[in-house]
Amino acid sequence: MADSYASHFGINNIPYGIASSSKRTAPQCATRIGDDIIFLAELAEYDSFKAISTPLSSIFRETTLNTFAALSKDIQSKVRVAIQEAHKSNLSKKCSESVKDVKLHLPVHIGDFTDYSASVNHVLNASEAVRGIREYPPAFHKYPVGYAGRCSSITVSGAPVRRPLGQFIEDYTVPKNNIIFGPSRGLDYELEVAAVIGKPVESGTYLNAKDADEHIFGLVLLNDWSARDIQGLEMNPLGPFNGKNFMTSITPWIVTLEALKPFEIPAPPRMQPVAEFMDDPKSINYNIQLEGQVLRNGTQSTTCKVGFETMYWTFRHMIAHHTIGGCGLRSGDLVASGTVSGDQKHEHGCLLELTNNGKVPITLSDESELRFLEDGDEVRYIGVVGDGSVGVGFGECVGVVKPARQL
Amino acid sequence: MADSYASHFGINNIPYGIASSSKRTAPQCATRIGDDIIFLAELAEYDSFKAISTPLSSIFRETTLNTFAALSKDIQSKVRVAIQEAHKSNLSKKCSESVKDVKLHLPVHIGDFTDYSASVNHVLNASEAVRGIREYPPAFHKYPVGYAGRCSSITVSGAPVRRPLGQFIEDYTVPKNNIIFGPSRGLDYELEVAAVIGKPVESGTYLNAKDADEHIFGLVLLNDWSARDIQGLEMNPLGPFNGKNFMTSITPWIVTLEALKPFEIPAPPRMQPVAEFMDDPKSINYNIQLEGQVLRNGTQSTTCKVGFETMYWTFRHMIAHHTIGGCGLRSGDLVASGTVSGDQKHEHGCLLELTNNGKVPITLSDESELRFLEDGDEVRYIGVVGDGSVGVGFGECVGVVKPARQL
């Protein structure tokens, strides 16, 4: 049986998700401790929750976490403590089911999805893989460069990814090569972490980086599936579109910033001065250790081990940059980091980097070659805080590759 | 008093919007004939609507048109006829208020917003303005190139646009110039037409171009406000982000495809063969005549007059390309054409083209120079079908430029 990751969900985690079961058929807000899924609308009927004087039970009966995410950090903190105490006193047992009996859903309604490119190593490696030179985007040292992604394609971990059809250059090594139509030959993953917006930021106001944590509800893992050949043809001049919009996977559990706070870790130092609103004396990432695996023919190969502390731009920077022009953020909006990559080869978070855009394969545990993903390959992405002993983690984000649709 | 555009809203239009008033305080579905706004939930209580055997009255009481847009074309067509007959028999009078007493809202909840670049002239003129050469994007002749835009920033005509703050190159004429932070100096408009998705397209299915009309509810005018300096720095490598995401304006009325059908007009011939799913023997645009105006110091100048028939890629192509990789479309999604531009200077739909990225100003009616928009400038965009005599049009899409926020 697959690992349930119970060790990620200790009493210090208390993540939030949306769950249903045969007993509780309506998707609703839940948390997880060990292998117990706790249904929060029922738990919030107890006095310790009523004392918080917010209509928690009805908020937790909603089919997304958007309303809860928008509540003040103060109330969310009280709820966290009340859940921990209800668990200690066994009060939560009556509102619980085993993880194996429960179906998990997308945790929030995502009104807008932004994907940044916040890693130094990723931008340099991607530049080398695509253009043969290690060069920063012109703005890289001033702000995280990002683009808007597709909301309708975001699914929760476990959904299979169908190889997309599209148009691309038949052989990118041949100048002026034909553009053909067919199933992508360059299917890739991108291992990312994403922030879920809590308290909204009104359009026309803006945030300083140092104040942005107030608007982050928590983090998820995210796999930004990418078709490199389809993407390659469309990048000039408008950026990623069909090369990315066919699917994006996230973990079902949102780990709150409060759970992550004890595991803050300094971000890399600034290489160039930044604008005042981007200046963050306490520039921090979180000590999240990430592992990427490819499962082929029943054999598991680890393709990546990297720490989130490597990211040059932090979520505070990403959110400040996002709002400075007047763009509003709504509760539930997703802001992703871009591929997490370290400077070592085993720290590369996508195949574009690891196989130099498919040109230099790696060998998997079953002795087969990996350039890009093949039909039947499964990608598993796991994130845990610190050395794994503190009981805080994200579980896994998985998806198996299905063959392209028949035309 | 401003033109109410009553002549755009004849009996052959029957557009849909969301309206409220002091008498009818809840925003709800409405149509417009002449200067009368007809509240449809009330009208649908009459027998002629009940015969359609769809719960129209409750659908029209919703705060967006998403549910109505998703209904079959057959039902929508019956509703159109019933509205026209109710008007002729004066039945609609009791459910009507004057346009001057009514507030109009965003007509749909927009789950995803896509912006294409479908005009030959726009891509060549923009290439020349930015890079000094008239060159097509590599994929241009195979499919419309597009990117995802920001949903939270879409507002209905009339909302002012605040000049965005951002980071950009101080003087793009000087190589390796400083990146500075401040109010944009390159605020521009982009005159576009956008399709509103009706019947959804499920993720993982796909559409042939020739079948895509089935999924288009109707069209709106759209102003894709752009800050060229902010956008210029961020284009490499991920495309438009803060240069566009501060605001997008649309008209409050969605003109249905059924109203536009008699005004189909051939799109330009293909310059290169296309993939089979993109092949559309009846490649059509609509005979929509567009006018762009800048109002400064009380004086009106026409900056653009162009026909929508100039667009190389049609909405059918845009939607087919959108779905081919597996991306789903939901009712209410917005798919915009990109700047509409003809080959003559007076047909250029943005200042990037008209003033060569601010380098060659034009002279307005008040003798002042226009390079980019100044604080206080108002942009008005009007669209009418055919020569204006057929009673079908979009009204106007307007917004006035407010000074940048103080830091």
From TrEMBL, chains A, B:
Pathway involvement of the protein, from the record: Amino-acid degradation; L-phenylalanine degradation; acetoacetate and fumarate from L-phenylalanine: step 6/6
Write down the EC number: 3.7.1.2
**Residues that coordinate or bind Ca(2+):** 115, 190, 192, 224
Q: Where does substrate bind?
A: 131, 231, 339
Q: Which keywords belong to this entry?
A: Calcium, Hydrolase, Magnesium, Metal-binding, Phenylalanine catabolism, Tyrosine catabolism
Give the matching SUPFAM superfamilies. Answer: FAH, Fumarylacetoacetate hydrolase, FAH, N-terminal domain
Among InterPro entries, the record links this protein to: Fumarylacetoacetase (IPR005959), Fumarylacetoacetase-like_C (IPR011234), Fumarylacetoacetase_C_sf (IPR036663), Fumarylacetoacetase_N (IPR015377), Fumarylacetoacetase_N_sf (IPR036462)
User: Domain Fumarylacetoacetase-like C-terminal: where?
Assistant: 116-381
* The Fumarylacetoacetase N-terminal domain, residue ranges: 12-107
Q: Does the keyword Membrane apply?
A: no
- List, separated by semicolons, the cofactors it needs: Mg(2+); Ca(2+)
What's this protein's name?
A: Fumarylacetoacetase
Q: Does the keyword Nucleotide-binding apply?
A: no
Which residues participate directly in catalysis?
122
Q: Name one GO molecular function term.
A: fumarylacetoacetase activity
Q: Which family does it belong to?
A: Belongs to the FAH family.
Q: Which residues bind Mg(2+)?
A: 224, 244, 248
Broad EC category: hydrolase
